[in-house]
Every structure is written in C-alpha cells, then in structure tokens.
Amino acid sequence: MKGARLLVLIWGLAVAGPAWGHAFLERAEPRVGSTVKAAPTQVRAWFTQNLEPAFSTLEVVNERGERVDQDVTRADPGNPAGLQIALKPIGAGTYHVKWRVLSVDTHLTEGDFTFKVQP
Amino acid sequence: MRRTLARAVLSVGTVALVLTAAASAHAHGLAGKRFFPSTLTIDDPFVADELSLPTVFHIKEPRDGETPARQNTTVSGEFSKRILPNLGLTFGGDWTLLDPAANGKTESGFGNLELTLKYQFFTSAEHETIFSVAFGWEAGGTGRAKIGAESFDVFKPALLFGKGFGDLPNALAWLKPLAVTGIVEGVLPSRSGNKTFLLNDDGDLEIEVEKNPKVFHWGFAVMYSLPYLQAFVKDIGLPVILNRLIPLVEIDINHPLDRGFAGKTTGTVNPGIIWAGKYFQLGLEAVIPINERTGKNVGFRAQIHFFLDDIFPNTVGRPLFGSR
Prior knowledge:
The complex is a heterodimer of chains A (119) and B (324). Mean pLDDT of chain A is 86; it is low at 9-19. Chain A has a single domain (20-117), classed as Immunoglobulin-like (Sandwich). Chain A has 1 helix and 8 strands; from the N terminus they run H-E-E-E-E-E-E-E-E. The longest helix of chain A has 15 residues, at 2-16. With 119 residues, chain A is mostly beta strands. In chain A, strand 7 (93-102) and strand 8 form a beta hairpin. Helix content of chain A is 13%, strand content 43%. Chain B has 3 helices and 17 strands. Chain B has one domain (2-311): Beta Barrel (Porin), CATH 2.40.160. Chain B is mainly beta and 324 residues long. In chain B, the strands form 3 sheets. Chain B has a 12-stranded antiparallel β-barrel with strand order 3-4-5-7-8-9-10-13-14-15-16-17. In chain B, strands 1-2 form a two-stranded antiparallel ribbon. Residues 1-26 of chain B have low confidence and may be disordered. The relative contact order of chain B is 0.17.
C-alpha cells in the first residue's frame, strides 16, 4: 500500500513538474523538426515555465536569414507559459524559429528549432 | 604599511571582481541550450547551488588480502554552495555499513569529511562547453577507522569539463542531444604509509606498513538527452516522464601510480538513467566492475538531487556575492 502511494506521488510530481526551473521549450506548433504540408500562418510555442511576456520573444527566419514573422510576439491568452507570433505568407522551405524567454522566476533562456514546409 | 594594506585590499577586490565577471555562470549546469544533469558517479564540471541527498551505493566487494569479501553499503550526501557565480564550495560526507569489516565483524560509521573548492573558468553557450578546476580535501581522522576512513589527509586537484554536441551540423542532427562530461584528478595522500605496531606470538614487536599510493583518477559520462531531442532537434512525441529522461554511461577509473601499487588499476562502468524535473532529479545506475581486482559482482547507485537555485532562487539558491 505504501509502495502504491509512493508510486502515485512520484507520478504526480512527474506530471505536475515541468522540466527545470528555467523555461525550456515543451512543445511547439509546427512541431520541432517537423515537415508540414500547408504553410502555417503563425508559430506557437509552450514552455516549461510561466513567462514574462514583455521580455520573451519569438523570431522566425527563412533559409536566407530573412524575417518572415510579423515582428510582434504575443502571449498565449489561454496559457501563461505560451507565446505566439503571426507569419507573413510563406512558401515551401526550411524555417528557423529562435526563442528567447524570461521565466517568472527571472531565469533567461534561449534556443531554436526548425520546421519545413513541403513544396 | 597602510598603503600596503590598501593595495592588498584593492588587489583582493579586483580579483573578486574579475572572478565575478569572467564568465556568465548559470545554475545547475546550463551552457547555452544544454542542461547538464548532475552525474552520480563522477563529479560535475559546473558550479551550482545543489544538494545530493541521499546517494545510496551498494556492492559486494571481493576478498582483498586479509580483508574478507563483504557487502558494502554507503549512504552519502553533498551540499554545494556558490560563493561567487563561478566559484563554489562543496561539503560531502558519508555513512558506511561493512558486512563484515576487516575485523570480521559488521561495522558501520561515518567516513572522512570532504571539502571541495571549484572554479568554473570557461563557459561557451554557443558550443555548450564548460571547463572548471577543483581542489578537494578529504580531512583525515574525521571518520571512523573501522570502516576504512583514513587517518591522513588526501588532496585532490582536478580538471573537469562538459561538452554538448548541439553545434554539430544539421546532417548529424540526431547526435546533437549527445553530451560528455569528464574529470582528470590527482589523488594525493599526505602520508606515504601507515605503520601498525603488533606483538607476535613470541612477544616480539612487529611493524606492519600499509602503503598509500598516489592515484591518477579519471572518468567521463556519455549521455543522450531526450529533453534536448524533443526541444531542439525533433519532437518525436515522447509522453510525459519519458521526455525528461537522460540515459547515460559513466566510466570511473583509478590508476595507482607508485608505492607497490603501480598498474593495479580498478574501475567501474556505470550505465543508468536520470530523470530531471523542475526542482530535483532522480538517478539510478548499475555499478559494473571492469576487472576482478575491482570486484565480480554488479552493484547499484541511486540518488536524489535537489536544484537549490530553483527551489530557493532568492536565498540559499543564489551566490553569496555577485549577481547570479
């Protein structure tokens, strides 16, 4: 019985606790490293910590390093750990998403990932 | 005199400032996108506010001379505190149960206390690289002799490193989650040998000398970070728990260098897994001897490790001096 309670506790901690006190990318849309058929109109990203949206940004560039986003990162209204940015019309190719975020406990982290749009 | 003192104070202040500003240190092993977990067997290359409590180790050790084969169970703890953002101090201690000990009885007690000063002198976010130097001091005579605590001090100068492979070209994207950490260390006893005075059956005095060799200790850990894979390379849809696992293998080798022990290498291979959460990580490794001198049986090491900088970001979890 004690063993079962311990397992439940460990499972609860694992599910409830995002990875690390620093904000890292939990998931994104389009997904990290994915290839999508239709060009997305926005990129959304959710992190392992709630963010300070005023100090958190997304940036999307194409293979030539040109910005293809609308330059305004917004907080996800339904999730304090989420960000979103609208894209200009884009075609087939590889796109690079760079993120730089400040978690509510003031840790600054940054990273990047790519996604592809099929021809 | 006063001018000399003023210069000395200025010089200490300048050194402290340089140490503070030299590199942008991060909490518990971050270098750019790379999170280095705390390894269970070898020391970490980074300076952090952290607590390993407990680390539980168990193995059956082979017979060694007059010492019988025995079960060794050790419970240890380590508390690390940043003094400056890149300079930290670690206090370590352990409690050991030997069944049987060298005297044939079951013995238990505390080992010698250990103190380690570590300076992380290089951090590259772009190349996910960390270098640090450390100096450890095992305080002789602070533990119980019957469980093997030595009566002399042991000094341990070390160079440590960590390298993530996130800077590999995209053609090798699946290798980007790989990382390596390692240590090369000298283990330098302050006494070359221990003399024991005994009376034999004839009543004559005999002197036994147990030699204490210098040891070259090295080790490394190879790990593959599933969180890194998911966040930076390709989201393969791993479910919760699995997406925070870091499988790893640690190699830990000791080469005695002198005093009759040269070439008598011992070591272990330690495959295992770490789960990294928000405030703590859990680790479990098998301990596999590399030769018969080290042992014939597989043991284990398990650890709970707390990230104090995330649990107490404004108190215990920040450096005593300098910004974080």
